[in-house]
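Q: My collaborator sent me two sequences in one message, no labels, and asked for predicted structures for both. Can we handle them in order? The first one she listed is below.
A: Yes, handling them in the order given. First sequence, followed by its C-alpha cells:
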Amino acid sequence: MRRILFINPFGIGDVICTLPLLDAVRRAVPDAYVGFWCSERSSELFRSDPRVQALFPVSRGDIKKISSGSAFAGMKKTAGLLWALRKGRFDTSIDLSLDWRYTNLSMLAGIRLRAGLDYRGRGRFLKKKVRLDAFDGAHIIEHYFRVLETIGISGVPGAPVLFIPESERQRARELLRSRGIDTSLPVAGIAPGGGASWGRDASSRHWPAEKFAELACRISGELRMQVVLVGDRAEKAVSAAAAAACPRIKADLTGETSLQGFAALISLMDLMVTNDGGPMHVSTAADAPSVSIFGPVDEKVYGPYPPGAERHLVIKRDLSCRPCYKGFRLHNGNCSRECLGGVEVEEVFQAAAGLARRRRDEKK
C-alpha cells in the first residue's frame, strides 16, 4: 500500500484546488493511505473527508519560526510534526508549498520520493521536480497535476468536490431557520469579503460593498429570493456595510459557522455571488450555482474549474492592465476603483438571474 502525503500550506482556495489530485490518487491507487499537511484553518475541510486518513495542521508561521532559529514554541510544534510524519510512514510526498523548508522536513521525516513544484530553484530537496516560475498559461489545478505525473499518476483533472457531512448540512439548515429563512424557498448567498490569504491587500479583490448591497436588493425584489450574507468573522465589517445599505437582506451570517459549516451553508444556496477568493472556491466545490467577480487575478489560472462551466460564471472587466496579479505579486494598488469598481451591478444581476432561472427549472 502506498502512503502519500500532500503538502499545501496556502489559503482555502489553493487547498480546494488540490482536491482533484486526491481524486486522481484514489482512482490510481484505491487503497492508498493519504495524509494532508495544511494550515490549521484549512484542515477543517478534511475532518470528515474519506479521501484523507491523516491530517497535519501546522501553519506556515510555525515553519518560518523554526527556520529562523527562534520561538521555542514553534520548535516544539515542528518536532511534534516530524514525529507524527514519521509515524505515518509516508513513502511519497506531493509538495505544493513552493518552499524548501517543507521538503527538508519531509526528508527528515524519512519520505524518500519527494515530488513537487521547483519554484525558482527552491526545490533543492525534491527528487521529482516540476519547474515553476509563476502560475500562468494554465489553471493552477493543471500545474498541480504535473506533479502527480512525475510519480506515474496521469489523467484529466476533474472539478474540485468538497465532502460535506449531512450532519453539517442539517446544522446549516437549522441556522438558516433560526434566522427566519424558509429553506423550502429559494435562498441566495452573498459573500462580500474573501481573499484573506492576501492580508492587508485583501480589499483589492473586493467588489464595492455598496454594489453588493444594490445587487442584494435587486435579487430580493426582482428574483424573489431570500438573501443572506456569509463569510469569515474577519469580514464582519464589510458584510455589515452591505447589510446597512440594503434592508431587504434577511440575515447576516458572517462569522457564525466553522469553515466546514460555512461550506455546508453554501451547499444549500440556490445562488452564490462572491469575489475572487476562498468563498468562490468553496461555492464551486460545494456545487452551488455561482457568479464570481474578478479584478486583479487571472480567472483562467485561479477561477472556477473547469473553465467555462455554465453553472459557475465569471464577471470581469476587459482592461489592458488586468490581470495585474502576476508572479505572486500585485502590481496595481487601484484595483477596487479602476477594475472592480467598473463592474456594473446590472451585469452581475443578469448573470445571477440566469442562474436563478436555471436553478428553478432544475428543482421543478
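Q: And the one she listed second?
A: Here it is, processed independently of the first:
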Amino acid sequence: AGNVHSILPKKSAWTNSYWDEFVSLPPVVPRGPVALLGLGAGTAAHMMLEVWPWIQLIGWEIDPTIIELSRDYFGMSSLEKATELGGSLSVRIGDALSPSATVEGGFAGIVVDLFADGKVLPQLQEAETWLEIAKKLMPDGRIMVNCGGADTPVSLAADTGVSSWVQNPTIKALCSAFPGQLNWK
C-alpha cells in the first residue's frame, strides 16, 4: 500500500516520526515488561532499547517473513540479546490481539501499532477490543497507540472547528472504552 512499516536510521536512534513518541512510555509506567503489538521490523524496539537499555520488550508480529527479514537486515537479532543492563526484545510470532498475547502479572505498558494494507485493524475500531487489551495491563499500566493510517485525515474540520482526530473511528472506540482518560497528539 506504499506505507512505511519500519525504518532503521543509520546515524541516530530517532526517526522524526511517530515511533519517537513510543520512547516516552517507559518513564510513565511501572517497571515491568512492555508489549509491542505490531512489531514490524523493530523500529520502536530499537529506539526503546537505545534509550532505556534495561527495558524488557515483548513484541508480536503476525508475519514470520517480516521477522526473518528483520533479523537479517534490520538488526533485530541484536535486540534479542540482553544489553549490559539486562534489557532485550522477546519476539512472538502470532496474533497480537489473541488472549494468549500476555504475560503473568500484566504489562507495564502496551504499544499498539497494528495495521493491514495501510489501515488500522478494524478490530481496533471496537471498544470491546480496547477493554480486552487493557485487561493485559498491570495496575497503573498504560496503552500507547498509533491510530493514523494512510487514509487518516489530520487537519481541522473547517465546518465544525473540531479536530478530525475526534472523527477517527479508532479514537471514537478508545473514547467509548476509556471515557475521560485519553490524551492524543
